[in-house]
Amino acid sequence: MQRIKDFFIRLNLVKKIILLVVILAVGYFTVSKLFLNKNSKVTYQTEKVAKGNLIVTVSGSGTVASTNSSNITTEATGVVKNITVKDGDIVKTGDKIAELELDLEGQQKSSQAWASYQSAKNSLQTAKDNLYSVQADLFTKWQSHFDLATSSQYQNSDGTPNTPERESQTTYRISEDNWLSAEAKYKAQQKAVEQAQLVLNSAWYSYQQASPIIYAPISGTVSGLSLQIGSVINSQSSSNTTATTNKIANIKTDVLPTLSINLTEIDVPKVTIGDKATIIFDAFSDKTYTGKVISIDTVGSVSSGVTSYPTVILLDTKSNTILPNMGITANIITNIKDDVFLVSSSAVKIDNNGNSYVQLLTNGKPINTNVEVGLSSDTQTEIISGLKEGDTIITSTTEVSTTTSTQTQSVFGGFGGGNRGGAGGNNIRIQSR
């Protein structure tokens, strides 16, 4: 029992010694920190005021529009039995692309479309026949009125109209009204013929869509042709009342590609029709293209509380590598100023009164100098007055803080610092403003 008691006495003594060492260590570091000396040194990043060219731009992102291409489609269904073109071929409007062997549904659609076309054709012929009739009536009534108007009763001997007599006679007015009425009917029938021709054109187009022959809708270069002989083209809908189409290929024209981007409500007032632009495509970011603004939708659209204004840019050059719906970023040049004083935009500051100023470095000391600013880009600002070429201005400031520990009396009897009994080293910390 005595040995156990002696063991616990020694254990309590060890705990007290350890606690004392911890207290002395904490006290040492606390006392040392109170005697630290701090020094700081400020360094400046500077630049010289120089003349240059300022290019002001606004940017927007968007995609390549598909306005220079058209889809080759068909409503016919069946098996492909002949293909007359391949990718890269140049075709003209109405050229034959392929031919199908129609299935039963395709035959029904084709027959209905052909019947509609024949009906429209007959309606056009009827309208033309009626036009001949009203035209003949017009000529007859015009001749009758002309003979009456040039008679001695209604025309003076010198060939001038006898106006009082014409205005007072009912016979003359009826003759004139009959002529004008016939003329009005003739003009109305001309419009009826035009309308019937449009209906016929539409019926023919519908028949082409349902016919076993697939035609080119426009002139251009064929691309994306996916047909093969023996391929089956099926209907995409079970409804007989809804016309559905199958895409066969594309036809791309030689028209320069257009790009559609969205501008913010802050940027759109700065842009005008004809402004030049530089464009970078997401697919090939190592190339830069040029173009110009050809359209601005000033009505805009609102989505999730954000207003955007679609703007169309026409490229200056065409390329086969530019495809519809590719992502792009465009920088529209809104202003260019040559030979002006320029400084980094980071150097220009605003005081509490709203005045612009820069820090001019004179004899190693910064001096606030008021300036008048003009246009600015993302990185540069035009200085109208307040500086001269060659002036050194501060663009950023860096503070270097040097903390030096003094020789402090250690609680252990030595002097504080990095080495016991000697002076400690320096600890340097850099802070950026």
Question: What key attributes describe this structure?
Answer:
433 residues; alpha+beta; Elongation Factor Tu (Ef-tu), domain 3; Helix Hairpins; 6-stranded antiparallel barrel; 29% helix
User: How large is the radius of gyration?
Assistant: 45 Å
CATH C-level category of the largest domain: Mainly Alpha
**What's the total number of strands?**
23
Order of helices and strands: HEEEEEEHHHEEEEEEEEEEEEEEEEE
The CATH architecture of the largest domain comes to Orthogonal Bundle
Quickly count the helices. 4
Determine the fraction of residues in helical runs and give it as a percent range.
25-40%
Number of domains: 3
CATH topology name of the largest domain, in short, is: Helix Hairpins
The end-to-end span amounts to 69 Å
Envelope shape: elongated
Biggest β-sheet description: 6 strands, antiparallel, barrel
Q: Compute the average pLDDT.
A: 83
Give the helix/strand class: alpha+beta
